[in-house]
Amino acid sequence: MLRWTVTFVILAIIAAIFGFGGIAAGAASIAKVLFFIFLILFVISLFTGKKTV
User: Fold this and answer.
1) Which domain holds residue 35?
2) Helices 21-48, 2-18: crossing angle, 10 deg rounding
């Protein structure tokens, strides 16, 4: 999950540098959603002490 987040963040940064607004906005929104999903899973795993996949 973290790998997808990093991939979309890098894609959004590259698209923003080249000025592709639509692509950058789409990749940034996907990266934001994946980041929050990963963050929630991380917090849950901290409280439960179990590994989540």
Assistant:
1) 2-48
2) 160
